[in-house]
Amino acid sequence: MKFEYLIGDIYQKINDIEDKGEIASYIPELLKVNPNNFGVHITTIHQVNFGVGNYNDKFSIQSISKVLALILAYRIVGDEIWSKVGVEPSGTAFNSLVQLEADKGIPRNPFLNAGAIVVSDILLSNLKNPKEDFIEFVRNISNNTTLQYSNKIAQSEKAVGYRNVALCNFIKSFGKIENEPSDVLDFYFDLCSLEMSCKELSELFLFLANNGLTVQNNKSILSESQSKRINALMQTCGFYDESGEFAFKVGLPGKSGVGGGIIAIHPDQYAIAVWSPKLNEKGNSYKGMKFLEEFTTRSESSIF
Amino acid sequence: MKFEYLIGDIYQKINDIEDKGEIASYIPELLKVNPNNFGVHITTIHQVNFGVGNYNDKFSIQSISKVLALILAYRIVGDEIWSKVGVEPSGTAFNSLVQLEADKGIPRNPFLNAGAIVVSDILLSNLKNPKEDFIEFVRNISNNTTLQYSNKIAQSEKAVGYRNVALCNFIKSFGKIENEPSDVLDFYFDLCSLEMSCKELSELFLFLANNGLTVQNNKSILSESQSKRINALMQTCGFYDESGEFAFKVGLPGKSGVGGGIIAIHPDQYAIAVWSPKLNEKGNSYKGMKFLEEFTTRSESSIF
Amino acid sequence: MKFEYLIGDIYQKINDIEDKGEIASYIPELLKVNPNNFGVHITTIHQVNFGVGNYNDKFSIQSISKVLALILAYRIVGDEIWSKVGVEPSGTAFNSLVQLEADKGIPRNPFLNAGAIVVSDILLSNLKNPKEDFIEFVRNISNNTTLQYSNKIAQSEKAVGYRNVALCNFIKSFGKIENEPSDVLDFYFDLCSLEMSCKELSELFLFLANNGLTVQNNKSILSESQSKRINALMQTCGFYDESGEFAFKVGLPGKSGVGGGIIAIHPDQYAIAVWSPKLNEKGNSYKGMKFLEEFTTRSESSIF
Amino acid sequence: MKFEYLIGDIYQKINDIEDKGEIASYIPELLKVNPNNFGVHITTIHQVNFGVGNYNDKFSIQSISKVLALILAYRIVGDEIWSKVGVEPSGTAFNSLVQLEADKGIPRNPFLNAGAIVVSDILLSNLKNPKEDFIEFVRNISNNTTLQYSNKIAQSEKAVGYRNVALCNFIKSFGKIENEPSDVLDFYFDLCSLEMSCKELSELFLFLANNGLTVQNNKSILSESQSKRINALMQTCGFYDESGEFAFKVGLPGKSGVGGGIIAIHPDQYAIAVWSPKLNEKGNSYKGMKFLEEFTTRSESSIF
């Protein structure tokens, strides 16, 4: 299959370029990772699996979890969720707090920190054992019982997450969060601490390339329409203020995390995960972005 | 072909619902149109053509012209264009002026008025007879020599376009426009005054569903990569602060105009144009949005 | 003395008008106050004391405390304080969070909540027993050992002060606060819970009309230059986004609190305190503003 | 009189310090002035006149004209003017356009460019021969028939005043300007082109220190209350985003111009004008600000 050759070839090329990114420094624990790690893994709906580099190493998926939290909340409360969080790109990172004020506590979209905090609040109100139920949900999708939170990462972020405390209390001040901010934040930091490898990520997210059904055993995680909508949201909002650039250059729905991971989906074809810890100035993996741009260009698999 | 039945059926349904929109009132001449006009036309890369309702009536395509202006400028100056205008969604209509100040005169994307004004300035600097050359370019793509500006519309907008005068002079004050603001605006208002029918629109834009090549005679308007990028831009920025909603509900790259027209593209399949003059509160055709949402849902042709 | 007659006369008049204000509802405990309370008290540097109405009743002085906190911090760290908090009016209440983001955690002035939180942090770092030392300082100025915090008010605000928690953590995220946000906020809420009567307020603040010296026993609280600067700050920033209006209509340096109190200073002449709990839409005492406008107009004692 | 000695002494000192300012470059004609000019002139209500340095040289008073335009409009339409322009400080230069959008075309105060443009529009609607009537009004106040506009300066600014064109058209787009923007701007640029010396300025503005009456012949220019209000406005809004700083350090109502002039008023005492063309980063005369700070400190004549 041509993907395998292509991925290997591009991996070599990108591996050799100078990495101009920087590891995220605001979560102390993340700084301990080896900055030279670089892994890629693709899983197709025809069950092709292929990886190169550190594709089996676990890393902190961080904001990629926001997609999973949104999916679980969407399953539980349905379209009602869109009264609490929007579906529009936010413009810039800079603006997120400004817009929260203008929009009276309704985050522009669920992939901003503010939006994911609101989603966490919804889960907290609707799950019996939020932390356990969420990991169970994720394990079920991927048929992988080894998936785990990292306590170290969660604690490290809790200790210094002042900006998120600010966001959560700000939303609470508008009456848009039901639970106590400290509980919401505890759960939010746990969510973000999930650890996975590129292989696990691409397997887990494959159902979004398959209209909401798992490929392995045909379980329905989302309806076809819901699945398409999650992809649309990742396309317009998945990379903060670099979302337009990602659509423009890569042309796939996707989501990045500050740990250096990126997941991208080609509807009806595949899910691909990339990991390289050093981030560009917009907070997305420097090499990850470069890899995916070259990959969709050479494979002509932008969805546009 | 199933599209024909579907389009006819949805047209009937949407035609009967109450139109909660309002005709744009800020361009006096636009108010003269019959608010009940409603037309749809699809053109596929396999040369299927099908229309219902007022699909042959000409209307003012307004901001849809911004895509054509961008394409011509992109052909002329290449990727250099992205140093003068960005590719990111702007968040909200409200923010456009704010962000222009924060970004020192570089518009967030070419589909904001500010961005299209900068594109107009680039064309003005690079075309011998800008007004003639532009219409010639558009006619060539669609092999349709009858396409015309509307002097009445252009004059009507020039007389009251204070906000655009403000935007243009604001950008000029940052040194980001080369020509005199009054010349740039004259050309900009001309561009926006183009008149077409749904049929003409869907035929004209079909090359964007065909990797940049015209279907009729295989002329290359844009490279494959450029064509995909224009589609990506329409996906993330084509509907002002309703762009996320359009991706979410319709799932096609597209562009709306304040005259009530919408063009949408399904890569490798078709271009579809809808026209209904009354606009929702975000400035996009009320019935047009409803039609396209139902159309992609029932035809399962969202690209996501 | 003409002030006595004037104050009595205006008091009657304002007492009779319809009070279009509303009691602040966001601190539950404040809602328990009698909304019809209305008191006025003047103290002149020639030791004239005169009050009408509820001038001896204690009320929650709230933001008026910010002036006292600033004065104590100014005494301790001197002009160094202005590297952590500005001296410019903020424009609007609405903007305070926006500008905090633009200004990277440096509040525009010490009378915004954000600014007073930064001042509280400075005091926390410089006082041995912050809560005790502060009340001691205030008692010393006014030779009044009965002044007290209200635990009920402080607790009531702590329970629901999400917006202030957001502000404090937001500033902390910029590294502009030294102590833990929860400690800073505890102290801040204590400061704001101070209770005084109009009589006590006008006696306490008289030193600002006397170039920084207490009138009773000539203690120097601030240097002459510092005293003038505090007055200048009250003039430009004392009434949130109604500061311009207050300068325009009343023409005295002053500071309001959400409990309905206002203190105003006429340099070289007097301090006057007004209290009426119902607030206008900008958060300042409805009757208090009306009283002072008429008072300076009829006594021709605007400083301008 | 002590002022004379003080002024001479401070003038020497400030004349010798390094001037860290820069001449305003955005109006080409202003660049032709000698950057080392430095003049001071005081006029007291007891008819003392004293000047040093280039106090008799004419310069472009620029924004200082905004005070005169406001006064004339205030005389004509009375308090109705405050429905079209506010009395609040704007926060920052940066924000002025932002706030204009938030406030739907109502400028925050009459000393912002936006506010002065609105005032110009009011004058245009209410004067028979605006340009002649205005200069006549100014000449009458000061009994000085030699006062003149500078055509060169006005033309120079008209040629490059894109930002002001933007502001004016932006306000017009909100329907808050009656006349055509080009007419309003022509008049506005004329107003700003007035030329005066320090001596003429301090004589002209003395009536604001005299409760609205000219000292020479007791003509009433404004009522006492109106006069105080103009002073209050100058105090809170006279120096853009350095207004708080000026109140804080100088402690007098005043107004600066981009030509390097400053006028300041001490109610019941004097008017003082300073001129030095090089501006600090906030757009106010570098040496002028330093001079006035030292002058009010040493003369203990801050109003606070």
Automatic annotation (TrEMBL), chains A, B, C, D:
GO BP, sorted A to Z: glutamate biosynthetic process; L-glutamine catabolic process
Domain of life: Bacteria
Organism this protein belongs to: Kordia algicida OT-1
Family indicated by similarity: Belongs to the glutaminase family.
Acetylation as UniProt keyword: yes
Annotated InterPro entries: Beta-lactam/transpept-like, Glutaminase
Molecular functions per Gene Ontology: glutaminase activity
Protein name as annotated: Glutaminase
Keywords from the UniProt entry: Acetylation, Hydrolase
Keyword check for Acetylation: yes
Taxonomic lineage from the root: Bacteria, Pseudomonadati, Bacteroidota, Flavobacteriia, Flavobacteriales
